[in-house]
Design brief:
Structural class: mainly alpha
CATH class of one domain: Mainly Alpha
Radius of gyration: 20 Å
Largest sheet: none
Shape: elongated
Order of helices and strands: HHHHHHHHHHHHHH
CATH topology of one domain: Serine Threonine Protein Phosphatase 5, Tetratricopeptide repeat
Helix content: over 70%
Strand content: under 5%
CATH architecture of one domain: Alpha Horseshoe
Distance between the termini: 71 Å
Length: about 240
């Protein structure tokens, strides 16, 4: 049997396999494309995506770095490398990569959201709110940006701002906040923010019993949220 040494053919098969969820197969095909053409930036990028999908974030970072070395103006490579850095808890690196992506593609809302998430992780709450706000200016129906900005507003004592943001998110996509926070709880059941976020969504939907349960769980994990919740519940 004769195997193709055409890098484009391997790359196309890598994309097909990734689309079908076969990330191991995608990695093999992308690797063959790289073997045939070591300067194939898109193949490194595609392999990085599949490595990230399999949880190999360090491997993904290496591939995105190689793609950037070959094509230094790739905003998506910086964006994805930053995401992988964030998954490893390297939040300053995520901020740096997201900022570079913004420099290269200032109208790409996901870059602001990614930087906002990382800024929130290092305690720069206002910087995160500003980034979510910019993402919303660019993409007015960006549900994720609305409810994450709302969560930060709630933690900052701005209950009315939080309610308004959640109301807008629920108007755009009624299921998104609850579904997303529920999924986050499955992977990080001890993260108080996820219960707080879901609780606010329930509160805005007037499901007070469900909201109360989530707020109670959030407080059991992080008692210092009590003051924020007191302000919130007065609304």
């Amino acid at each position: 049997m004769v195997f193709s040494t055409d890098p484009a053919a391997h790359f196309d098969r890598a994309l097909e396999k990734a689309e079908a969820g076969d990330h191991q197969g995608a990695i093999r095909e992308a690797s063959q494309a790289i073997k045939a053409n070591p300067d194939f930036a898109d193949a490194y990028f595609a392999r990085g995506v599949s490595k990230g999908a399999l949880g190999n974030f360090q491997g993904a970072i290496s591939d995105y770095s190689q793609a950037i070395k070959i094509r230094p103006n790739s905003a998506l490579a910086y964006l994805n490398r930053g995401q992988a850095q964030g998954m490893l808890g390297n939040y300053q690196a995520q901020i740096d990569d997201s900022s570079q992506a913004i420099k290269l593609a200032p109208s790409y809302p996901q870059a602001y959201v990614n930087r906002g998430r990382a800024r929130a992780q290092i305690g720069d709450r206002q910087g995160a709110i500003d980034d979510y706000t910019q993402a919303i200016k660019i993409k007015s129906d960006f549900t994720f940006a609305f409810y994450n900005r709302g969560l930060l507003k709630a933690k900052s004592g701005d209950a009315r701002g939080a309610i308004d943001d959640y109301a807008q998110a629920l108007k755009i996509d009624p299921g998104a906040p609850i579904n997303d926070f529920s999924q986050a709880i499955k992977t990080q059941p001890d993260n108080a923010d996820w219960y707080l976020g879901r609780g606010i969504a329930y509160f805005v939907l007037k499901n007070k019993e469900a909201a109360r349960e989530d707020f109670k769980k959030a407080l059991s994990l992080r008692p210092e949220l009590q003051q924020n919740l007191n302000t919130f519940l007065k609304e």
